[in-house]
Known about the structure:
mainly alpha; 7 helices; extended; Non-ltr retroelement reverse transcriptase
Amino acid sequence: MTNADLMSIFCNALVKHVPHSFSDHCPLLIHMTQFGNRCVSTRFHFKSWWMLEESFLKEVEIIWSSTSSDLLSKLETLKSGLESWAQQIKLSREVMEKEMMRLADFIDTNVLLNFEIEKDEMYWEQRARVNWLKLGDRNTSFFHKHASQHRKELARNYFQKLFSSNGVGDSVHLLSGIKRCVTSDDNLKLTSIYTKEEMWLALKGMAPTKAYGEDCLPALFF
């Protein structure tokens, strides 16, 4: 006893009823490998991810309009065309993944390089401070160079503060024209501690596969 699904996969399979001495149920013995190679199913399988591709609808229109035969023939042409299109998409995706991996390696290399440059800059900055302690009082050129740099920093900080805003100090007058919508009773309910019943109702009202919190776990998990 078998069905069409099994025979479509193992077309040369053989099923035997093995006799049993102490039961009225006979075990089944299925031979698959010794009667031939496994058959490859040629059935068309529509993949859900195809609809996520931007070119899917356009590809369907192109394939459908490529023939003027009857409906069944057009459907067969469409299935064959979509399989070829999907194969090209998969190949393009593999090439894209390799390119993205190459770019990721390049970015990692740049990050390490920048880190080494930063360490080198910190080293020379520390050496400059040492030179200031050693040569600042005796080398006039060295002293004036650093004094000039300090004056530039003071000027830059002055104008940054002059043309920047620290925000509004008193914002009470901005809220005077807004009508109060939350009553004292509403505010009391909003600031009260959540009950188990409220949490359970909120959890059941969520979409099961959506993650609303920072833990990224969907409601189905809970």
